[in-house]
């Protein structure tokens, strides 16, 4: 996989050299390059922004440096041989994906991460100020598959932090990047529930014991306990995820835990039980 990032703060992306993604680069699983948008300016002051048409606060990123940067990235992507299929570069017919972080984008989820992990060439365009002149997105649709993408419903100052999160989420799904692929298997089996809590040594720490079932060696009981905690946590913290559960994936014990947390199965839906339904504490 090839990943290009364009930003006026390329140093911001230095964190990608560390840990997982850095290792994947050294192993040749992932080719990452970060470009400084200012390299593609042509004026003495290396200007990347200007005042907004129609008025309003702040500045908008000028279109031409973006077009020059993205053309450069396209050119180098077409020349580069892809590691999966040596000599292939971007497969014929598959356009590179241009991810444009924006609070107005589609929400970036694990499903999107899985989809993008299958692509040969991803390009990330990090905006700043009030964003990028919209014509860049229209222009880019002729050359890329464009995906305006939001990290979530809160306001950041620019696209860089969103790109750090997205590249990490995508990169760890690329085959070979995660040393122990079993951890990915467990994630895909998580069935839309929050994770269970984890513990390590010592068994007693500052008067706090590890839940005794985890020391029992009884794998069946441990699996059931973990599943119960997943369900209780999800009910307490993410009612949206509970409402999206498929009853066909819930056994009798699951349903009992959900009932205790105030949920009930009705046909092919999981619904909130009565308004006076209990909502117990959660670990
Ligand atoms: C950004 C962003 C993601 C998320 C992404 C890109 C470029 C118009 N607004 C621009 C006004 C407030 C400041 C904004 C700064 N900005 C934010 C994001 C994002 N992905 N989940 N929240 N915010 C840009 C400029």
UniProtKB/TrEMBL annotation:
Residues 1-242 form the tRNA methyltransferase TRMD/TRM10-type domain. It holds the Pfam family tRNA_m1G_MT. It is an enzyme of class 2 (transferase). Keywords: Cytoplasm, Methyltransferase, S-adenosyl-L-methionine, Transferase, tRNA processing. Belongs to the RNA methyltransferase TrmD family. Homodimer. This is tRNA (guanine-N(1)-)-methyltransferase. It comes from Kocuria dechangensis.
């Amino acid at each position: 996989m090839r990943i290009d990032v364009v930003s006026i703060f390329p140093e911001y992306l230095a964190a990608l050299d560390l840990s997982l993604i850095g290792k994947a680069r050294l192993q040749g699983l992932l080719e990452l390059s970060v470009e400084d948008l200012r390299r593609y300016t042509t004026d003495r002051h290396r200007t990347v922004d200007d005042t907004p048409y129609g008025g309003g606060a702040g500045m908008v990123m000028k279109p031409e440096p973006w077009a020059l940067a993205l053309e450069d990235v396209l050119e180098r992507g077409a020349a580069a041989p892809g590691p999966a299929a040596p000599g292939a570069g971007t497969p014929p017919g598959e356009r590179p994906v241009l991810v444009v972080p924006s609070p107005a984008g589609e929400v970036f989820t694990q499903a999107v991460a899985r989809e993008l992990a299958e692509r040969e060439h991803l390009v990330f365009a990090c905006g700043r100020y009030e964003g990028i002149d919209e014509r860049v997105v229209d222009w880019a649709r002729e050359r890329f598959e464009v995906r305006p993408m939001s990290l979530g419903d809160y306001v950041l100052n620019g696209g860089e932090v969103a790109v750090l999160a997205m590249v990490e989420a995508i990169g760890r799904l690329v085959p070979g990047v995660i040393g122990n692929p079993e951890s990915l298997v467990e994630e895909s089996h998580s069935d839309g529930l929050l994770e269970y809590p984890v513990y390590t040594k010592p068994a007693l720490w500052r008067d706090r014991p590890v839940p005794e079932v985890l020391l029992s060696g009884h794998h069946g009981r441990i699996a059931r306990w973990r599943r119960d905690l997943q369900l209780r946590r999800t009910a307490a913290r993410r009612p949206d995820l509970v409402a999206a559960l498929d009853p066909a994936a819930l056994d009798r014990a699951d349903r009992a835990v959900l009932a205790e947390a105030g949920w009930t199965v009705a046909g092919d839906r999981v619904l909130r039980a009565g308004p006076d339904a209990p909502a117990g504490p959660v670990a």
